[in-house]
Design goal:
heterodimer; A: Rossmann fold; three-stranded antiparallel β-sheet; 8 helices; B: mainly alpha
Chain lengths: ~260, ~280
């Protein structure tokens, strides 16, 4: 299969049991993109991301990551994707140093035995500096704050020189200032390294100034486009069942509001 | 020629060192993988496998040593447990299912053995409490073979083993074979547990497999293996020495010190703390 320049999700349905979690989802993202998969809790964002990295196979439909089908060519898709999981899916108390966490991003490309050479150590330090964590290598992952852990996982993804960064809720459980810092870092990486970015979130506010492409999902895709095209009352009403209107504001039932 | 007491001391010392090396390598991996409960499965299956071996040898007159059947059954059950976890079973449910299968096997085989070979039952019970009061050359050979197999493999894949339990999705996305590393850890644990159980007994093996790893994680996350090896060898040496002094089976001596370590490791912990 020939590599192309876009991520294509075509009529994808994913289910864990009888009920589909994602139904008939379709969208195309053309490189370069800085995109957000946005939707309420339980909308199927994580499920769709798991299918994009090849962890789940859809019941029907087709996914292509630059021309690679993720669940049938794991090796190739692992080469182009740098994945940052939700922080709650990581065992934060595991006895791992920051250096060990980041180094595995590089070492996993090699066959065993995977030995931490001085070259690997230098590269780890280089990428830790890139995410603003110079001299953190010997610290334990468990000793870091939420924002720092997120940066370590980002460094692990970046050290693989990916073409696409996929992040699952990269700023959940962080305070607003740190959320903005994480998004600012991601945008800087997108611009300076030319890496495509696709992240899931149920909050758009920290990203608004970067004009991301928004994919609005709640089981199915409701809209794809720039925030001004997607954040419209009629679209939001359809995607957010808990939406309420109070004195000229629309409250999505989560932690942010839009003016009508 | 060595005198009988010198031979006993030397044999016990070698067995303690080898047992310590095996435990020191596997125990931290079990703790990091939060799979101590998994070793319960193993020890039940070792008993079932041992009984099957006794049944085949004593009743069916098929000369397959119990150590072989115990190893095979424990590896089989451990891989079955790993596969169940891979398919989304919670670990406690997968362990409980495997324990059920092992215990059912144990009950059925004990029932038949009690009719057909009362001697077989007492042989089988030695797997519960430890084989003998003395360390035999066969014990040493078995422990040495296990140490040579298990210890280098755990260290060769230590990074990967830690990683697939630290962040399974991330490990998968980077192309690591999460399933195979789980199988590897469980199979190595099965081999280690079987070998230890044949010398020390099923009951004590459970404690000794958990104790050094618990202590190491409690004291320092950066020097896990150093502490695990030092403590497991110390537990083994002190245990064997106590057993010799008090004329107890090695399992009793080792059990006393392993229990002290577990109580110490757990007593001061307010939560799962890592420094």
């Amino acid at each position: 299969m020939e590599l192309n320049n876009c991520i294509e999700v075509k009529d994808v349905t994913i289910s864990y049991g009888k009920e589909p979690v994602v139904e008939g989802a379709s969208f195309i993202l053309e490189s370069p993109f800085f995109a957000i998969l946005m939707g309420p809790n339980g909308a199927g964002k994580t499920t769709l991301i798991r299918a994009l990295i090849g962890l789940l196979k859809p019941v029907s439909g087709y996914i292509s990551i630059y021309g690679i089908v993720p669940w049938s060519d794991r090796k190739k898709v692992a080469e182009v994707i740098g994945y940052v999981p939700q922080i709650i899916d990581v065992d934060s108390l595991a006895p791992m140093t920051v250096e060990e966490v980041v180094a595995m991003g590089l070492l996993s490309k090699l066959p065993p035995p995977r030995i931490m050479s001085s070259t690997v150590r230098r590269k780890v330090e280089e990428f830790l500096s890139l995410v603003g964590l110079s001299n953190y290598g010997s610290k334990l992952f468990s000793e870091l704050s939420g924002g720092e852990r997120q940066r370590v996982l980002l460094a692990r993804a970046l050290i693989r020189s990916p073409r696409l960064l996929i992040l699952d809720e990269p700023y959940s459980m962080l305070d607003f200032k740190v959320k903005c810092e994480v998004v600012e870092l991601l945008y800087r990486i997108h611009k300076s390294l030319g890496v495509d970015v696709l992240m899931s979130a149920h909050e758009l506010s920290p990203c608004m100034i970067y004009e991301p492409t928004v994919i609005l999902i709640n089981k199915r895709i409701f809209a794809v486009g720039k925030p001004s095209q997607v954040l419209k009352l009629e679209i939001l009403k359809a995607a957010y069942p808990g939406l309420t209107e109070v004195r000229g504001l629309v409250i999505l039932g989560e932690d942010h509001a839009f003016r009508k | 020629m060595l005198s009988e007491s010198s031979y006993l001391l030397l044999a016990s010392g070698i067995a303690a060192l080898l047992g310590g090396a095996i435990v020191g390598s596997v125990s931290p991996a079990l703790i990091v993988a939060r799979s101590v409960t998994f070793s319960i499965t193993l020890l039940h299956s070792i008993l079932a496998g041992g009984l099957l071996g006794v049944y085949l040898t004593d009743v069916a007159h098929i000369p397959i040593p119990p150590v072989v059947t115990a190893t095979l059954i424990s590896i089989l059950i451990s891989i079955m447990t790993a596969e169940a976890i891979n398919r989304g079973f919670p670990e406690d449910s997968a362990v409980a299912t495997s324990v059920c299968i092992s215990v059912t096997m144990t009950v059925i085989l004990t029932y038949y053995l009690s009719f057909m070979s009362p001697l077989g039952v007492s042989k089988a019970m030695s797997y519960v409490f430890g084989t003998s009061a003395l360390t035999t050359p066969r014990d040493i050979a078995r422990l040495a073979a296990t140490a040579i197999l298990v210890t280098p493999l755990v260290h060769m894949f230590w990074g990967e083993i830690k990683y697939v339990f630290f962040d399974p999705e991330g490990a998968y996305s980077m192309g690591l074979k999460v399933r195979y590393y789980r199988y590897l850890l469980y199979a190595l644990t099965a081999a280690a547990a079987t070998s230890l159980a044949m010398s020390l007994g099923v009951l004590i093996s459970h404690v000794i497999l958990a104790a050094p790893g618990l202590l190491a994680v409690r004291l320092s996350a950066r020097r896990i293996h150093v502490i695990a090896y030092a403590s497991s060898i110390a537990i083994m040496l002190l245990g064997y020495a106590t057993a010799l002094l008090l004329e107890l089976p090695p399992s009793a001596g080792v059990g006393i010190f392993a229990s002290i370590i577990v109580i110490y490791a757990l007593a001061g912990v307010k939560k799962w703390s890592i420094r």
